[in-house]
Amino acid sequence: MDVLTQNFALYGKGFLGTVQLTVYASLLALALGILMAAFRVAPVASLRAFGTVWVTVLRNTPLTLLFFAVMLGLPRFGLVLPFTVFAVIALGCYTSAFICEAVRAGINTVPVGQGEAARSLGMTFDQTLSAVVLPQAFRTVIPPIGSTLIALAKNSAIAGSFSVTELLGTYKPLNERGYSIVWSFVWIAVGYLIITLAISAIFAVLERRWGVPR
């Protein structure tokens, strides 16, 4: 307990940093993921192609490599932002590819007749997707999206290697202060466990309320 009690402020700062990364990157991932899923089922060929390329490239690119591309590449084009913002962009874009596929799979579970009925009423593609298809698809994609966001929380540990304040990075100053590396990582693991259990609890509530009974 000494490792935790004597360095509570350090752990707290790292914990809050990881929570911040997780929340902001999750919001970005959900927004981009739903948008790309809409692109992938759109009647416009160019949008479908863009969505397919987005998912294919990001799902097959190592996250660490994507961090390097964002952190080192964007400043070369004149986009200079805090490293935390770059980390959110990298995490959000990477995770959006997996959110997209989860949402697209949910869209495919909605009977085709639902969309045809909406179009017969004169609804546009955007209206059909937002008012008819996505609300029904949402009920089936709650569990996979929850699992994806849990993975995002754990992936945020990579940001510590790029001078971003987060939970895993607390082991470095603790090691320099001579604390046991084993107990340092034990409390880091507890912090990640709290975050992932919180996400699991949130999505368990959502699934009980809106999920499809099995």
From TrEMBL:
Alphabetical list of Pfam families matching this protein: BPD_transp_1 (PF00528)
SUPFAM superfamilies (UniProt xref): MetI-like
TM stretches of this protein: 21-41, 53-72, 79-99, 181-206
Superkingdom of the organism of origin: Bacteria
Localization in the cell: Cell membrane
Family: Belongs to the binding-protein-dependent transport system permease family. HisMQ subfamily.
Protein name per its UniProtKB record: Amino acid ABC transporter permease
Organism per entry: Streptomyces javensis
